[in-house]
Amino acid sequence: MWNESYDYDVVREIRVKTTAYIGVGAINKIDDILAQMKHEGVSSILCVSGGRSYKSTGAWDKVEAAAQKHGIALALYNRVTPNPTTDSVDEAAALGRTINAGAVICIGGGSPIDCGKSAAILLANPGKSGEDLYCFRFTPEKALPIIAINLTHGTGSEVNRFAVATVTRLNYKPAIAYDCLYPRFAIDDPALMTGLSEEQTRYVSIDAVNHVVEAATTTVSNPFAVNLAKETISLVNNWLPVALENPADLKARYGLSFAALQAGVAFDNGLLHFTHALEHPLSAVSPDLSHGLGLAVLLPAVIKECYPARPAVLAHILEPIVPGLAGVPEEADKVAKAVEQWLFGLGVTQKLQDLGVKESDVDTFCDLVEQTPSLSLLLSVAPVEGTRETVARIYLNSLRPMA
Predict the structure, then answer these.
(1) What does the pLDDT look like over 147-183, one tens digit per residue?
(2) How many CB atoms lie within 10 A of CB 197?
(3) What average pLDDT does range 241-249 have in this prediction?
(4) Which of 25, 86, 119, 292 could form a disulfide with 130 if both were Cys (CB 3.0 to 4.6 A apart)?
(5) What are the residues whose beta carbons fall under 8 Å from the beta carbon of 43, sequence distance 6 or more?
(6) Which candidate, 81, 7, 67, 82, places its Cα nearest to that of 37?
(7) Helical packing angle, 198-215 and 223-245, nearest 10°
(8) CATH topology identical between 19-192 and 195-397
(9) Is Oxidoreductase tagged as a keyword (predicted)?
(10) 198-201 — which CB contacts under 8 Å span 24+ positions?
């Protein structure tokens, strides 16, 4: 696909930074990781997690045992909620300061990982707050070493330089991206993910699909991101139904974990555009909305909008779920409806109207897309111009089923 989509005389950046361990039993690598931290002089670590899964999966027992073995003190902040806020970032960082933390361990899905990453920046930049960070009042160049123990197969945050949090006071949900946010180490152990609920299993996997659809079609994408995209979609298509049927199937969880890890690397290289830019205001206003569900609701309309600009790439990467495409602009409506039917077949049938969004709300969400820091950057790399009219059309086409 690279020779059809990219000029050989254009220099493109390819990023691969984090040391990631993936496979059943990968959690045991925490012993080697903490031995390395101790060797580097780290004697205390802030641990950031949600309220339950860090403990119920057994991950915390492994972390505690390794820390005790290597003489490292731990402080646990376990109050991160889905769609983390800058208040949580500030609280986690404050706890880290009480023990003079030298590193941060994030245990959970995207929310604890993003919160922990953000706290790692604040701990290395005294006097700064979560709101300062997410309102771009400073540009961080350093963070404490970050270790990400991923408990879902969707985020990708364990292997890239991105983090997201809602600015509590403003209902803004910006994304940040700094080189200091790359985790030093990441652990993706499928055995820690078998307890995900049916809904979580769906939504996090669909998050990975959205990552690659966007990453492969931005104006700054590269061949690496495109190749990762098709493989990611194929893995999710193959293994998500298996995991829904049998949550304990470790081969399925491994396939989905690998898909999500690839997707995290893909959007680290290609960035993101419409789906994430438009979903962030939805979950900022409604924090109980699962990020993956919000993305699923928007994805068909985004594909419809972008397909005419990237027909060859989208036909290539979507082939596992929409076979036989010619890769011509005229297929846009057909492909969008086919992707919507694929999502419906996985049990994700909601549209914006089912989430309580009305046509009269579209202007408000368009305002938030324009006002939220960082979202204009996502729109700037979209394959079609990210005008207010385009954004409004995507929201309107997502209110109810297309088919």
Answers:
(1) 999 999 999 999 999 999 999 888 899 999 999 999 9
(2) 9
(3) 98
(4) 86
(5) 71, 72, 73, 102
(6) 67
(7) 170
(8) no
(9) yes
(10) 198/244, 198/247, 198/347, 199/290, 199/293, 200/152, 200/290, 201/240, 201/243, 201/244, 201/247, 201/256
Architecture label for domain 195-397 = Up-down Bundle (1.20)
Residue in this structure with the two tokens 């270790």, named with its chain if needed: 147
User: pLDDT (tens digit, 9 = 90+) per residue, 302-320?
Assistant: 999 999 999 999 999 999 9
How far apart are alpha carbons 401 and 383 in whole angstroms?
A: 24
187-202 residue pLDDT tens: 999 999 999 999 999 9
Both structure tokens of 147: 């270790």
Integer Cα distance of 332 and 338 in angstroms: 10
Whole-model pTM? 0.94
* CA–CA distance, 119 with 126 (Å, rounded to integer): 11
**Could you tell me the residue ranges of all domains in the chain?**
19-192, 195-397
| Buried/exposed code over 48-69 (b: 16+ C-beta within 10 A; e: otherwise) | bbbeebbeebebbebbeebbee
Say how many C-beta atoms besides its own lie within 10 A of residue 324's C-beta: 6
Domain 19-192 has CATH 3.40.630.30: no
Amino acid at 228: L
SS3 call for 309? helix
